[in-house]
Each structure stands twice: as C-alpha cells, then as structure tokens.
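Chapter summary example: a protein plus magnesium ion.
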Amino acid sequence: MGLFKPYRFLSSVDKVDLEQLAADGFDCILLDMDNTVLPRDTEVVPDAVIEWIARAKEMGFKMSFVSNNWHGYVFDRAAKLGLPIVHKAMKPFPLAYHIAKRRLGCKRKATVSIGDQLMTDVFGSRLAGIKPILVLPQATKDLPHTLFLRKIERLILKDAKPTR
Ligand SMILES: [Mg+2]
C-alpha cells in the first residue's frame, strides 16, 4: 500500500469537489492549516477558501483542523473560521487524526484529510487509515525543515501534477 500516495492531488483546497466527496460517502474533513488553508506569506485566508469552508459546513461536513503548529495563535485562527483544532499534532504520528475524528464523531472510512505535505499530511493520514488529499503548498515561504522535506517530496511525486 502506498503510504506516500495521495488519494487526490489538487492545486488548492477550494478545488476539492464537495459534491463528489459527499457522493463518495465522505462526511468528515480533517484540514491542515499552514500553507493548506493559510498561506505562510500573506497570512490571509483567501476568499475562495473561506467560501469553500462555509459551503462544506452548509452541506453538513464535520470538520476540524489537525495542525503541527504549536503556537497558541492557531486557536484564534481556527475560531475565526468557526472550526475546532487539534494542534501540536506531531504528524505523521497518526494519533491527532484519531483524536480529531473521535471528537467530531466521524467514521474512519467517511473521513478525508487535506494537507500540503507528503511527509506529514499524506503519510500521517495513511497511517491513520484516512484517505489523504494533497494540495500544492499555498506559498513558497515555509519553515526551513519543511523546505528540505519538499525536496524529498519532489523525488517521490516525480512529475505528478494536480488534476485541477
Ligand atoms: Mg501544511
């Protein structure tokens, strides 16, 4: 089984087709925060992403952030978007995914994760038995160790391109 294989690969979170997810039996979304929802350069959540989150909620998706970020400010950011958060997640360890899923009352098979990193989001999600959607990082700015991991990501992803 491909622990580094994304279930879907898209250019950004708002490109995730919510109708398709619902049709495929998913009702729960676990979101990475940094460079997935919140670009690390502007620190402003794009309108398209705000609208996408609002629509997902309207459609009845249960959602939570699962973030490796350990700063207290992530609670404010999550609250502004009206979502709960499990922070200090230590992805790729799968525990935080299980915690978030249990808090929301979600079933593993009805849950997807969305994140921008292969080594943490995709790998961790696969270890938790949750299908991972990979998106492109929403800014080139990132933490030094993340920029290093991205070089390895490119080796694994080869020339894979987002499908939309
Ligand atoms: Mg991220």
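Key point: The chain is about 35% helix and 15% strand.
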